[in-house]
Design goal:
The chain is an alpha/beta fold. It has helices at residues 22-31, 50-60, 74-87, 101-112; strands at 2-6, 17-19, 34-39, 66-69, 93-95. The protein is built from four helices and five strands. Helix 3 links the parallel strand 4 and strand 5 (93-95). The longest helix has 14 residues, at 74-87.
């Protein structure tokens, strides 16, 4: 199981695999079991965005255990959250915001073991 951080600009937290584009993120979701997925919305001018990843997750039913939305785009965050909330299976944790320091530290510690 891996943890994935989708963002074209921000540094990837320790313990996560960086996906710098929607295509990279979709490939990881397709091929790996994802524990935690943290999504950005804007991924570069003219590039597919985080909402494309959300559509893929819903269409394929490939949900991670936990999903965080760390984007600074309010409209993008709202669109991703609404779609995920309406479609996610019970048991999938959806957080409308970034991971707390405690969550990041727990993931880092788990990967170090």
């Amino acid at each position: 199981m891996i943890h994935v951080y989708l963002d074209d600009m921000r540094l990837c937290p320790k313990g996560f695999v960086a996906a710098r584009s929607a295509e990279e993120c979709i490939l990881l979701i397709e091929e790996c079991e994802i524990g935690v997925l943290s999504l950005d919305f804007d991924l570069g001018w003219g590039q597919p965005d985080g909402l494309q990843v959300v559509h893929y997750i819903i269409a394929k039913g490939r949900y991670p255990q936990e999903i965080f939305l760390h984007t600074s785009s309010l409209s993008g965050k709202k669109a991703m959250y609404q779609l995920l909330y309406q479609n996610k299976p019970e048991g999938v944790q959806l957080v409308n915001g970034p991971m707390l320091h405690e969550t990041l530290q727990k993931i880092y510690n788990t990967v170090q073991e």
